[in-house]
Write the structure tokens for this entry.
Amino acid sequence: MECIFCKSINKEIPSKIVYEDDVVIGILDIYPATLGHILLIPKEHKPNFSELDEKIVNHLGIIASRLSLLLVTNLKAQGISLVIKEGVLGGQRSSHTLMHIIPRFENDSLNFDLLGGEEQKGKQTKTNKLYEDKEIIVVEYPTLTEGHIAILPKEEFSIIMKVPEIIIGKMFLLAQKFVKKIVSGEENNNNNNRKRGANIVLNTGIDQPQQTVSLHVIPREEGDDFDFVWDVRQVDDKSLDEIVDKFKGNVKKGVEEQIEERRDNKKEEQEEEGNKDSEKNYYNSYLDRLP
Ligand SMILES: [Zn+2]
């Protein structure tokens, strides 16, 4: 197999692994935007995010949130940017879909502005609601390109690490639904067969466009005048190994502690609410209700 990411997954080539489970692997980018930049890669080989199985998309979102927390605790990151590029027109360069998890620091000179510059500020208040359920709302966010949308939890959360995992998973599932519409041309009465890609971006802590966390889906097409790009940094092997060491054990411990904590909270909730659906049933019925 020629795919370099599949080779990493199969351990045919060495990589700096910070996280691994049955579904995804997290490795340090050796050409990072900032030190600690993680590539979160589904183990199944699919060229595009839109092609991933829904359960994998859900999992990807949850693990990204957990790794974000660990980047903050392990590396003292002041913010996180999550970026997925769909299709060549979305700026994707690899043949295997992946998510960039980029730790952000003050004055890191990255520009992941989602507000479309000063002159656009305030414009996003004139929004139409595209979808709503009891936990999530999707609105038009007409700032970067035509069809740009934002997916927000209804309850306000200041940073991604505070959003319950079940909601994070759903936000990414919704993002995938909208990306599918964009690339299939179904969205926005796109009847002139424009070829499109998309970017999926969530900024938290730094470059966060609203008080509450929001996941953005930005349609891309040939000749649009913007891109999510970054200059790569030269890093030595030793610096990367030091980060891997910080994650060793810490990932497992961090994640397990989080799960335990959430389980306790959940137990309390369930005791309060009595015969509420189990998380699994709820998740399945949620998939049926998606637009
Ligand atoms: Zn692959």
Remarks:
- Residues 4-224 form a domain with the HIT family, subunit A fold (CATH 3.30.428.10).
- The longest helix spans residues 250-273.
- The chain has a mean pLDDT of 85.
- Helices lie at 4-9, 54-75, 165-184, 237-247, 250-273, 279-289.
